[in-house]
Amino acid sequence: MNVLQRLLSGGGVRVPHHKDTANYPTEHIPLPKKIVLPMSQHVGAPCEPCVKKGVRVYVGTMVGRAPSAMSMHIFSSVSGKVTAVEPILYKAGRGDMVVIIETDGLQTVDPSITPPDVHDRESFIAALEVSGIVGMGGAGFPTDIKVTPKNLSEIDTLIINGAECEPYLTTDNREFLECPDSILFGIRSCLKWLGIPSALICIEDNKPAAIDLMTRKTEKDPQISVKVLESRYPQGAQNVLIKNATGRIVPRGARHTSVGVMMLNVTTVSSIGKFLETGMPLVTKRLTVAGDAIENPKNLEVPIGVSIDDVVNYCGTTEEAGKIIIGGPMMGEAQMDVNYPITRQNNGVLVFGKKSSARPIATPCIRCGRCVNSCPMGLCPVDIRNAYVEHNAQELDRLMADLCIGCGTCSYVCPAKRPLAPTVTLAKTFLKTHSNREKR
Amino acid sequence: MELHTSHLIVSPVPHIRDAVTTQRIMFNVILALCPALIASIVIFGWRALLVEAVTVAACVLSEYLWCRLRHKELTVGDLSAVVTGLLLAFNLPVTVPLYLPVIGAVTAIIVTKELFGGVGCNFANPAIVGRITLAVSFPALMTNYTYPTPVVACDAISSATPLGTDTAVPLLDLFLGTHGGVLGETCCLALLLGLGWLLFTRTIEVTIPLVYVGTVAVLSLIFQQGVLQQLLSGGLLLGAIFMATDYVTSPFTRKGKIIFALGCGIITCAIRFWGNMNEGVSYSILLMNLVVPIINDKTRRTPMGGGKQK
User: Fold this and answer.
1) Which of A217, A247, A278 is the last residue of a domain?
2) Which residues contact B310 (CB under 8 A, 6 or more apart)?
3) What are the chain A neighbours of B123 within 8 Å (beta carbons)?
4) Residue A166, SS3?
């Protein structure tokens, strides 16, 4: 049935897994000399630095205060002295403020850190507000906002996203294998304090060890079950996962909570568990360091704010780097500077050699329909591209370009190597600004 | 090794691509055409190879000269002109004078493809337009189905295409292609081998050939024509496997492919059963090519979440 359905409707693509690091236990990186904490590590407005040059900070000391609900406080991941609070030119030409901390090597924990007192929903959410936890899948959406939708009482399923459909990355897999109890504690706390009846842990079938462990651990728990999903990119995309796990379809323009589900990444929920146990806000992050130019691919636990350079040098490179990607190869961001810091929503650093980084040359479209039949959202990327070239907002609206989730499948499958995904993203932005203008 | 920022490539997602390229797709089509190519030489003799070589060369040269003269980027490397050339040659009888393939190639490549914007922009299958132009302009030369020098001895009769004769050709001869006809269409065995390769390499989906041939089979049953006779003779298999599945001129939606192939099958049968012509495959594909944009537009999948809300 599943196969038949896919034959008729298409959607998704089998990407090579390259998950060689799946069985590599997490290592700790030596403490860097300094860390750089950008004030923008979430979707909302940047944090305001709340420390000054020369101040001593400890592990867990707040250094950036969230100015609004859509932001999340930023905490120091090391103990040491603030050497600078300054602007830098950051990704995509944006500016950002950074707090630079010189480490003292002692890793003294901030004395104010105590496990939060959680006894009802309000205190649970209040605790999350100072947890430093944002969506770990890459979006960086503050978790305290995410778990308090307007229709909280209508939510019947908590989906734990452990699909990890991006090639190379194995951090979620390691989270399952190394911290299953934190994950379960996090899930149970969410279910208990938010009043959600059941949780579904979704894992792609290329992680048999994780599936096995989680199934055994949740055997006796009637509230939590494990859902095994086919390894097919982009299985972990929100709308795709909700459909494959529950059969529900998120309507165009609606949030996923409108169909009665709440989705949290497995590392997010595990971080919630750890925070409730210790009171230590999110200051470290697990990264998969891989790629064909990396000498020893590893899973690393790093302090947030460590530079890409430090991380990559620890693993070693075999050839000159052509491209450095933060995140997975399908949706990750190519970096322009090796001195950029690792932020809390990052989960991988991939380094590719010159040869494999070379951009393919785009040739004319031969209308093979691969992009159309593999789009997980059922869009027509080639037609959206043509409508965008003509700046035809009406046609873009008819083609529902706004539904694009930016997974990159269309570019991946294109035999003519056309950059469809970025063009559809431009079309989406164009449609949004156009319809905003219409409204006014 | 040290990391150097200045050499880093910054580009949009995704950072990895599937190995398939236009060139590889075309190469797979050429490989799939090879059994039929060999069969044509075995059945019709070495002159078959000569006709095929001239047609392919004329197609490639037309595209090359056009690109040079118009100062366009050379697209010969994608091998699509080779595919067009082979398909056009497969639609010619072995006896054609060699200027005919050249006229056909220019019609196919320059008029049908390049004038409309080059690869990916043609409104109809270039090889089919080339063939129809020749068939309309030189009807006698295009239906001169005899074989001059068979390489292997075969006891088949030299005759018109089986669809045009009253004497039934044995089914085995039809299947192996040892009868009169154009170069590439007679040997069904070779064409089916080609289909196998196209499916194995996932170059095409099975939808169009299956529905096309299926429609003809069902209609033959209904109108009491010999089903196998209809399926194995004429250009049906060549058309259904290689011409109707051309990416550019067939719908890209799965529903659309079914409608397209149904249309091809119905028109083919209508021409074969009630028309004045013996053969209707190329006309049916041409006619359906013209409505592909409409089919595509009407058969889009409803995007996930974009359906009517309750």
Assistant:
1) A278
2) none
3) none
4) coil
How distant, in Å, are the alpha carbons of A322, B168, B188, B189 from that of B173? 59, 10, 10, 11
Q: B13–A9: do the CB atoms touch at under 8 Å?
A: no
What confidence category does residue B5 fall into, taking pLDDT thresholds of 50, 70 and 90? low
Residue of A296, A323, A363 to mutate, interface with B, max B Cβ within 10 Å: A363
Quote the number of domains for chain A: 3
User: Scanning the structure block, which residue is given the tokens 């595919």?
Assistant: B83
pLDDT (tens digit, 9 = 90+) per residue, A335-379? 988 889 999 989 999 999 998 898 899 999 999 999 999 999 999
Domain that holds residue B245: 22-295
Q: Is the pLDDT of residue B153 over 50?
A: no
Chain B nearest-CA distance from A224, in A, is 27
Angstrom distance (rounded) from CA B125 to CA A283: 61
* Averaged pLDDT for residues B180-189: 88
Q: What is the CATH number of the domain that holds A51?
A: 2.40.50
Q: Kindly give, in sequence order, each residue whose CB lies less than 8 Å from that of residue B248, ignoring residues fewer than 6 positions away.
A: A366, A367, B119, B120, B121, B122, B125
Question: How far is Cα A83 from Cα A36, in angstroms, rounded to an integer?
Answer: 10
In a domain, B15, yes or no: no
Q: Are residues A210 and A274 in the same domain?
A: yes
C-alpha distance from B185 to closest chain A C-alpha (Å):
25
- 8 Å CB contact of A318 and B1: yes
ipTM given for this complex: 0.88
Give the three-state DSSP class for A283: coil
Say yes or no: A38 and A186 in one domain: no
User: In chain B, how many domains are there?
Assistant: 1
Judged against a pLDDT cut of 50, whether residue B208 lies above it is answered with yes
% of residues, chain A, pLDDT over 90: 82
The CA dihedral of B255, B260, B266, B269, to the nearest 10 degrees, is: -130
Predicted TM-score of the model (pTM): 0.91
